[in-house]
Amino acid sequence: MASSTPKPLFPDGIDDLVASVQSQYSIPSQCIGIVDGTRTATRAYGLAQLPNTPATEDTLYYIASCTKSFTATTLQCLLGNLKGTVSLQTTLASVLPADDFALAESTYATERATLEDALAHRLGTARHDLSYGGRADYTVADAVRSLRHLTPAVAFREKHHYLNLGYMTVQHAIETLAGGEGIEALHERYIWAPLGMRTTFISLATAREAAASRMAEGYTRDAAEPETVIVAPYVDDYPLVGGGGIISSIADMTRYMAAVVHNGFPTLSSEAYEDLFVPRVVAGDSPHKAWSTQLYALGWKVATFHGHRIVHHDGGICGFAAKMLFLPAQRWGVVVLANSDAGGSAGNETVLLRLLRERLGLGEGEEGAEIFAGWEKEFAEILQRAKTARERLYPPASRPTTPLSLPLDAYEGAYSNAGYGLMHVRRTRATDNVPCRSKIASILHAEWPGRLMDFVFDFEHVGGEEFVVWVDTATSSAMVRSGQRGRFVVRDGRVKMLGVNLSPFEERTDDENLMVWFSRVVE
């Protein structure tokens, strides 16, 4: 009797769904990889570079925070080689070089925080994603040393609080335990080389040198014309790659997913492999109907969907979005990559959920419509918050009416914060690209290149020593532009301090408590 033909990994109708999603969310391209048992398949849709460069299975995309699973896996492989002398319960302070690691406001946390705490986002430090980088010689050790100056959001081990700096701390620990060997070489040894991942890189310069023509352009929405898609600048190369930064293709990411599904990592023990997916902390509410509460393991989130255990993670950075998910019991997994930050995550989620439902035999659900409605609401709120920032931060009834204490030129200069570094503020003319009131002729301006993104800050005076600080990228992205609170402190006829809310990505309303204070540098 002839054996039945296995079902195609890409179900009927998926091509039409992807085309619809890309149109709906203005996503230039998506690449999908599927693993089902021993079978794998990939497809590429759309344009890697507008207007006419097609995406292929070898097109390179940033995978952003999907990098965290690589960091956790490489650490587990390294710990296996250390034969039990170091474990996930080993404290960070005992692993890292003397005095490198300290958490703000808590000697208790500094002494007790472990590798596992950092991997599970239990350190309690606020995100402070604008604090790191900014210098050509900035190192991962500098990022770790900055933690002592960065305020907490929650108490140590109180709850999950997502922290990229925690994974940079793990990166520093990995490189220290490996005798100074860089994490790129360790990824290569433990993951990339054994799996045949030949188009995966951890720096833009290396990716361009090896495969410049295969690098996708990233796209975002124009802050001035939010319906217009524009090229997003690539993230600056810097060595802070524990929490994000890997560049890969769908061909390689499908190889990686196959290894994740089957524990295809040659030096990873079964126990260490299973430990990657053991939940450590509650990470958030259910994102969709029929999803359970989200839990966080080691570089992976864990939940159930219609009673089936799922393990997943997503990633997003300026211009790119990525999503990975697998079903441990079914040995099935999927990866979706996109070159769009504005809608890329929602589009990836829509495609992934359709594939998940098809694999579980659940039929078409309502998630696609729910995701689109949620995205439209979220995007509208992002635009509205930026549009109304002045009135929201400084309501007319309570807005200071006094003029600045000093001429605007007196506020120019360098300001320093131990955790964030230097901010150089200068006077400039207001341009059409800055959403200031029409009567404002001059503003204060600062630039922060070489950080998570190339940030710019424009200070619009509203009264007294209070300013609206317009935060944006150098190319003006609707996904980043926001208005934040800013304030100068003047004493004895001189500007002494500058405070700015530098947490535009924190989902909190207590912006006064998010102020970062810089001291004026005496010149």
Question: SSE layout and pairings?
Answer:
Blueprint: H1 14-25, E1 29-36, E2 39-49, E3 53-54, E4 60-62, H2 67-81, H3 92-95, H4 107-112, H5 115-119, H6 140-146, H7 164-177, H8 183-195, H9 204-211, E5 218-221, E6 229-232, E7 247-249, H10 250-262, H11 270-275, E8 281-284, E9 294-296, E10 301-305, E11 308-317, E12 320-327, E13 332-338, H12 344-360, H13 367-387, H14 389-393, E14 413-417, E15 421-429, E16 442-448, E17 455-463, E18 466-473, E19 482-491, E20 494-501, E21 515-520
Antiparallel strand pairs: 1-2, 1-13, 2-3, 4-7, 5-6, 8-9, 9-10, 10-11, 11-12, 12-13, 14-15, 14-21, 15-16, 16-17, 17-18, 18-19, 19-20, 20-21
Helix pairs in contact: 1-12, 2-7, 2-8, 6-7, 12-13
Mean pLDDT: 93
Number of strands: 21
Question: Architecture of the largest domain, CATH level 2?
Answer: 3-Layer(aba) Sandwich
Find the CATH topology of the largest domain. Beta-lactamase
Q: Structural class, judged by helices and strands? A: alpha+beta
CATH homologous superfamily descriptor of the largest domain: DD-peptidase/beta-lactamase superfamily
Number of domains: 3
| Computed Rg | 24 Å
Q: Kindly report the spatial arrangement of strands forming the biggest sheet.
A: 3-2-1-13-12-11-10-9-8
Can you give the helix content as a percent range? 25-40%
Q: Beta-sheet strand percentage?
A: 25-35%
Give the CATH class of the largest domain. Alpha Beta
Core attributes:
single chain, 523 residues, alpha+beta, Beta-lactamase, Lipocalin, nine-stranded antiparallel β-sheet, eight-stranded antiparallel beta barrel, 14 helices, 21 strands, globular
